[in-house]
Amino acid sequence: MSKITIKDLPEVRGEYRENYSLAKATWFGVGGNADILFRPADEKDLAHFLKNKSTEIKFECFGVFSNIIIKDEGYRGVIIRLGREFANFSVDGDNIISSGAAALDGNLARFAAENSISGLEFFIGVPGTVGGAITMNAGAYENETKDVLLSATAIDETGNIIEISNSEFGFKYRSHSLNKKLIFTSAKFKGTPGDKTEILERMKAISEKREATQPVRTKTGGSTFKNPASSDKKAWQLIDEAGCRGLKIGGAIVSEKHCNFLINEGTATSDDLINLGEEVRKRVFEKSSIRLEWEIKIIGG
After folding, report:
1. CA distances from residue 216 to 48, 55, 105, 122, 262 in whole angstroms, order as listed
2. Under a CB-based contact definition with an 8 Å cutoff, are residues 59 and 159 in contact?
3. 212: three-class secondary structure by DSSP
């Protein structure tokens, strides 16, 4: 497919940017350019874009580009990035929080704490945004998004705005069963009454544990592989047993601190990260006959 330009796209109230460098946006700090970056003005603007764009034009939507590797060849299509217009919070009923999909998961936990709503503390240990958490059924410290999500609002690829209840998702480990391509725009979460001081203490404990066990201050994308259902061992244990802790290809290295994290030491390319991940998968399979599944999404090329 030929390169997309603004002339190929419908008029919107939001912002288009051509030849947008994705490397400066991703947590890994790698990736080529997107033909177009689109920041919609609001939900209706996004629905209008999806309804009126050519079906031949590919698109992906991301929040803060946390668990993504963008290939150095870039992305031939439109990258949609939801901005602050999609990051608001409100208390919407008895211990119910409404959140925009672009809100950081950590900020959702903090807002819940400020309003003495318990049950959402684990989000302080989840990187990324609410939309990504819903898409991946993200979780941490024995809790998952499905445990507290009431419903979500999404837009399908033809521009229809739909409401989806928790039971309709068919949630499973790090995914759901909906087969439509959806962009989540907002969600409702249900907590329980709690003591603000106690909630903040639990959040502090989660943050301290995460800081002590994960390479959070490096160029990384979060957990690289899903924990396999076919084993009672976690992905990091299988990786460690396969001798991959500290394994390096180019400028990419398997974290010494937590070996289910890949790190860009500063000079890594997307190929370095992908090749390193595939080498880890190969060695784990040779050692345990278990094929690790990528949790990080790879796009472009």
Report:
1. 37, 39, 15, 16, 11
2. no
3. helix
Element (H, E) at 301: none
Tokens of 15: 């912002």
Q: How far apart are CA 88 and CA 101, in angstroms?
A: 9
Query: Coil, strand or helix: which one is 18?
Result: strand
Neighbouring C-beta atoms of residue 241, cutoff 10 Å: 15
Radius of gyration for the chain, computed over Cα atoms and rounded to the nearest angstrom:
20
Q: Is the pTM of this model over 0.85?
A: yes
Query: What residues are labeled active site?
Result: 174, 223, 295
| 16 φ/ψ angles, rounded to the nearest 5 degrees | -105, 140
Structure tokens belonging to residue 41: 């003005």
- What pLDDT, in 10s, does the model give residues 119-153? 999 999 999 999 999 999 999 888 999 999 999 99
Q: Which tokens belong to 57?
A: 């034009």
